[in-house]
Amino acid sequence: MIRILALILTIAGMIGLIMGVLGIFGSTETGVNPWPVAILGGVFFLSGVSMLKYRKDSTDVKE
């Protein structure tokens, strides 16, 4: 479950970073300010990668 959430955050972060950087350099027009998109993309990407790296996803039930 944690790996799925981490993967979703990582992909959302990559999309946000790409859209933000393209908006900052003027290649694409999204209709919103590109700086918050880039910052949120960076936060999502880093949190997703950190979760993938440090969290262990186990389905074992400890009694």
Give an account of the 3D structure.
- The protein is built from two helices and no strands.
- The chain is an all-alpha fold and 63 residues long.
- It has one domain (2-54).
- The radius of gyration is 15 Å and the shape is rod-shaped.
- The model has no long low-confidence stretch (mean pLDDT 87).
* Main sheet characteristics: none
Oligomerization state of this entry?
Answer: single chain
Helix content: 55-70%
Task: Report the β-strand fraction as a percent range.
Answer: under 5%
Instruction: Give the CA-CA distance, first to last residue.
Output: 20 Å
Q: Helix- and strand-based class? A: mainly alpha
Strands, helices and their partners?
Layout: H1 2-24, H2 34-54
Keywords: Membrane, Transmembrane, Transmembrane helix
